[in-house]
Structure formats: structure tokens, C-alpha cells
Protein 1
Amino acid sequence: MSFNSREYEWADITLVLGGRDLTRIRAVKYTEKTEKEALYAKGRNPVAIQTGNASYEGEIGLLQSEVAALEDAGNGSIMGLSLDAIVSYGNPSTGNAMRTDRITGLQFTESSKEMKQGDKFMEITLPFIALGVKNNA
């Protein structure tokens, strides 16, 4: 049995959003949350943990030109887009085991742009919510 403990690097990440391989990506973050609550009955200690709704959210950091391409695809705004995203970790050409997560029904919740004196480029963070995340799909 072979075990490779090499960690993935930023250069090993590929993000395909709406069928487009994003090359001007600076960051990606996504989270799966589940409501959980302790269930109390007789005594002072919980007897079980009850589970409620699941939610999926995250952020994508892009350079301005990549956001402009998304705006063009959305007829001037990203707010109406509903996309699937594939996030792949690893580089098979260097022997890495590939891991691929699928984010379904991704929709942006905010579109904000900012530049300040001294900036060399515009980096835009786009928060999103999604319908689901399938790990290693």
C-alpha cells in the first residue's frame, strides 16, 4: 500500500464555473452547514442531537476581467445567474490523486467592486449560496 502525504497547493486547484475554466481566480471558499440542536428530556444532559436544515455558501475571489465575463454572460449582471461549479484539487501529471467537489445551483448574493489608490489590479469577492455540495463527486 502506498501513502502520499503531499498537500495540495494553490497551483493544483482548478475552478470550472458554468462550464468555463476560470484562469483569473484568486480565492475560493465554500461551506456546508447543518442546523443541530441538543434535545433535552429528563435530567440536565441532552439525550440526543436533532438535525435541521442544511445550507451551502461560499465566496469566489476573481480579478475584474473574469467578473466582466460573468456579467456579459448574465446580460450585464451576475445576480440572475444560476451556475454549477466544479472545484478540482490535484495535478494528475505529477502523480496527484484528484479530488473533485461539485457545487450545484450556485447563485451570487452580492456584487461589489472597489479600488483604492496604489492598487495594481481589482480583486472582487463574490459571495454565493448554493443548493448543494458533493464532495469528491
Protein 2
Amino acid sequence: MTAAGTVSLRREGAVAVVTLSNAGRLNAMTRAMWRELREVFTGLDDAGLRCLVIRGEGGAFCAGGDISEYPSFRFEESSLREFHENEVWAALQALLDCPIPLVAQIEGACMGAGIEIASCCDIRIAGATAKFGAPIAKLGFPMAPREAALVHGAIGDVLARDMLLAAGVHGAQRLYDAGFLLQVLPDNEVATAVQVHADRIAALAPQAARLHKRTFAALKAGATQNLLATAYDYADSAEHREGIAAFLAKRTPNF
């Protein structure tokens, strides 16, 4: 049986929306969806694009991996390695490498693969009833090393250990308290709040956003020294000049 599921991109001006869709399975990720997710990001035409929203279809973010596929590849080391390193991690790395701000719109289930995808985003906004976890210990296997490091870095040691060692599932407030979420809102307000936040990002200087993302990546890698040679190359850029000029003239900048 071939699992269904798609990853789609819809662009509206300076903001684009990436939607995970696997009907009837809370948008659980199939192997094809992982490949599509990577292709969306590696093939992205980012000209004029200032923000990306990642969401799930139908009131769920992503419930994890599509387990119906697992017997076909998980029991051989080579195919298991291929899945995690060349499909899952390749997609997650494409998200991490994206120079454009990523906002996660989290509703309902955010489990396993879902929390990995959300961990790649810059800003995460969730509904009050959203649930977070990675209870794969119930399935008899661990989270792959690079995926575990990603989630551990995003949610912190205490929650990561509970999710992976005790199959702990936590509510949005707990993830907010841990610093993983920017906002927790009533479920029916999440989509609007995400759109407002994405539009706010899109109205700001895109060059500054990309440079900030480069700095954040260097901080994570412990390589900020590598940025110093080019850190001030933006000095004579049009956006830099426009931002300062607009402030002095008491007008809204036109980026």
C-alpha cells in the first residue's frame, strides 16, 4: 500500500505558505512528503520573498511519520539509514539553510516529525490545545542522532529527555514556558496571528532578516568569528540607507 500525502507551496506576494497534507492521518509525513519538503526549499525562488509560513492542513500540524510505510524499510540498516540521512535530514537541513524567516503555525498534533519540522523554524505560534511529543519509544526505536540534537537544542534538555525516554506528551503552555513557542493562543486565533506576524516580518528589511539568520546559524555552530570579515558589507546598501533616511524623515521606510 502506497501512502498518500503532499507538501504544497502557495505564494501571496512577499509571504508564502508551505502546507503539509496527509488526509485522515493528521498530516503524518510519508517518505514522498519528506522528499517534496526538501524539493520545495531547495528549489525555492526567493526573489521578493520575505517570510515563509509552515502549517498543516485540517487543524493538525503533523502527527509524526506515516507508520503504515515503516515495515517496508525500517528493518534493514541500509534502507533505514537512507531514510533518516538522505530523506528526513536532507529535508530538515534544507529548512535550516533557508535564508528567509520561517514561522510555524502549530495547531493540534505536533509529534515526532512535526516537532522536528517546527524546530527548524525561527518563530513558532501554537493553539492552546496543541500537543507536543515524540513517543517513538512505544514503537521500539530511537530518534536519529541529528534529529534528536535538533529537537534537544530547540526544546531543551528536560523536555527532550521526557519526550524520548518516557514518551511524554506536553501541552502548548509547557512548550511556551520552555521557550519553544513565542505565543499560545485560542485555537481559532492562531491562523490570523501567524498571518499578522508574517506580514510584520515581510514589511521589515529583508536584507537585515537574512543577515540575522546568518548570524543565528553561526552562533549555533560556534563560528561567529567567521562572519567578521564580511559583517559590515551592507554599509552602502540601499536598504541600510533607506532605513536611516526614513527614520530621520519620520516616515515609514520602503523596503
